[in-house]
Amino acid sequence: MSASLVFLMTPALALFYGGMSSRRSVMNIMMMSFGALGVVSVVYILWGWSMSYGTQSWGGVVANPVEMFGLKDQIIDSSGEFVEGANGYANVIDIGFQLTFAVISTALISGALAERVKFSTWLVFSGAWATLVYFPLAHMVWGGGLLSHTQNSLSAWLFGTEGGEAIVAPIDFAGGTVVHISAGTAALVLALVVGKRAGFPKHLSRPHNLPFTMLGAALLWFGWCGFNGGSAFAADGLAGLAWLNTAAAAAAAMLGWMLIETLRDKAATSLGAASGVVAGLVTITPAAGALTPMTSLILGFIGGILGCLGVGLKFKFGFDDSLDVVGVHLVAGLWGTIGVALFAREGGMLSDDYAYGFKLLVIQTLIAVVAMLFSAIVTYIIAVVLGKTLGWRIDKEAEANGIDLDQHRETAYDVVGTNNFAHAGGSMDKNAPVIPSRTDIKE
């Protein structure tokens, strides 16, 4: 059930991003989420599970992609029974659950690239990024690698071990580092490498359908119940606590975001409410199993405020993060990953064990920084290589006329009776009138 909920999050993200986009780019941004769903699902089955959770670790950074290629020996054993996984039930369930995480993590990045990149390049990037960034980070954090709780982790090297595990165990319950910090960092790097949209920051299209965005946020919130609750890997009290903490943080973050909007802009907006919910969900993700509902309210409220302030960074520093991936996912993800050290139920800095709390703060900061650096360096290499080979940008005329028509030969809305298609297969009717350019129709 949790895997199904997380699966829903990628189409929900398509709605969330789609509503924030202009009417000339809504289909492209939604297709980027669906494209990631297709590409990453395939590569996860082929080598993603093996790279993330294989037993043949390469220096604690990534596992051998060939060991379990195509899920070899991971579904049915020699006696015809389903292979039991590490959590006491069929391994195939965890494979499906983790596949959905890889998909949504990759799809998140697309929000930084709205309205200006080739769809084909995005598809290649999706497979490359999942392979070279997401799978290694999943291995490092959840697969027993460098950022985990094992005796071979950075935490163990810094603070020692006890019973074969690190004395101070890093906390990433459901993906603060693996999902949000890595995706937010990748979004920042791509925004810098690919460059700005025409007219940024003075002339930008407004969100074309805010009800889409609110519906997407609602479905993301619903899906996040499985994202965090399912990360307990059992239908038990920990899952219930993660669910309740998730609800608390998202609600408080929405209020925090709207508070800043009201103080700054004299109005709370639907876009702000939807974005605040997502910022709260991002914030609580690494901490969902380690906090109480009360401390989740505090963590989430601060996360909503930081996320609201964080979306303004693109204007201050001049990078075009189209749909605010950096502000919502990187900023809130960093706060959630590091902030958990303050409020953790056991050993947090506000508890009586100050020494442990300080060590936990150090290790949480360290895993956040390592995740950022790893994602930034590898993403930059991928982005440059693709830029030199396939190319990232559509041409200026195509950007002006709308990326939907250029990349997909279709538009979301037949607003002037000129949707130039003879049938659903997408072939163009050569006798149909040409859709006017952006300069001919006022947005």
What can be said about this structure in brief?
Its main location: membrane. InterPro entries: Ammonium/urea_transptr (IPR029020), Ammonium_transpt (IPR001905), Ammonium_transpt_CS (IPR018047), NH4_transpt_AmtB-like_dom (IPR024041). The protein is mostly helical.
**Low-confidence segments:** 420-443
The CATH superfamily is known as Ammonium transporter AmtB like domains
Biggest sheet, open or closed, and with what strands and sense? 2 strands, antiparallel
Instruction: From the 3D structure, determine the CATH topology.
Output: Ammonium transporter fold
Category from helices, strands and their pairing: mainly alpha
As for the number of domains, it is 1
Give the helices and strands as they follow along the chain: HHEEHHHEEHHHHHHHHHH
How helical, in percent, are the residues?
A: 55-70%
Adjacency order of strands in the biggest sheet: 1-2
Number of helices: 15
Strand segment count:
4
